[in-house]
Amino acid sequence: MKPEQVQAQLTRVLSSAIAELRDPRVPLIVTVERVMVTADYGLARVYVSAMGADMPALLDALSHARGHLQREVAAQVRMRRTPTLEFRDAGDSPL
Fold this sequence. Notes:
Elements: H1 3-19, E1 31-37, E2 43-49, H2 55-64, H3 66-76, E3 84-89
Parallel strand pairs: 2-3
Antiparallel strand pairs: 1-2
Helix pairs in contact: 1-3
């Protein structure tokens, strides 16, 4: 699978998985702006944004839920191995 296809699938799966999290630090609407995977698919940087959210608390909550989110990815995206998820503030990222 091409990196663009993997990134599109990860964006879709993570958007719905994050929306289902029941953590008070995660606002109702979190946007997965984009996902960048490394060449070996070992790491996926997930850039997120949320209107008026406490971003450090949101990133902490997502990191805390990393295991659950990686299992969702493993269940829904056909890959040899599931990349490690790393969450970043979309506002801090260069394009």
